[in-house]
Amino acid sequence: MIILVDDIINEREKAKLHFIKIQSQKLDYLGEFKENIIVALEKQEIERNIIHNEIKEAMSDSRAVLLKLRRDIPFDCIKPYIEEAEKIGLRYTLVDDITFRGNIGLVVVSQEPLDNEDKNVVVESAAKVFIDAGLSEGFIYAEGQKICPEHYKELEEKLPEYLDRFQEMNFFDRLFGKVCPIDRFDKKER
Length: 190
What we know:
With 190 residues, this protein is α/β, with parallel strands linked by helices. The chain folds into two domains: 2-110, CATH 3.30.1330.30; 126-182, no CATH class. It has nine helices and six strands. It has helices at 2-28, 43-46, 53-60, 75-88, 126-132, 138-141, 149-158, 171-175, 181-189, and strands at 37-42, 64-70, 92-95, 104-110, 146-147, 167-168. Strands 1-4-2-3 form a four-stranded mixed β-sheet. The protein has a two-stranded parallel ribbon with strand order 5-6. The radius of gyration is 22 Å and the shape is elongated. The relative contact order is 0.14.
């Protein structure tokens, strides 16, 4: 009988620890359970004023029911996400709670639990993607713009899946004095 009592106590302790872990996760994900998070984005990524395609895709996901944004992020940074939510008819809310911890600034929430306990739901930093590939951080600020043939070729070699986010400058662009935004960024950073 002693073994059974120990087993019961161990199971009770495991259940308590699991409950505490889940409640703790809610503080990380703006009051939502991690299992209901389709995708999350860190505050500093939102403040870069670059709309992440991963977030737009998650907002359009049929399981998405809510977009939550931290109220302490400047409005001009969250406005594009709010406009996107309104355009597709996704409900959104601004949250403000001193108990939230961590860097999460935005979450796209599903009504039903997802199998994502072991999955990282936070979108990787755009700068990290380019830097890890051996490219300039300037690429994140040049998305949607024309870049010089040298940088376009470099991108084609190192991150070809990102080519559709850029256009290559042509002879006339250079002739009329257009400067590659990546060169401009790199010059400013020095």
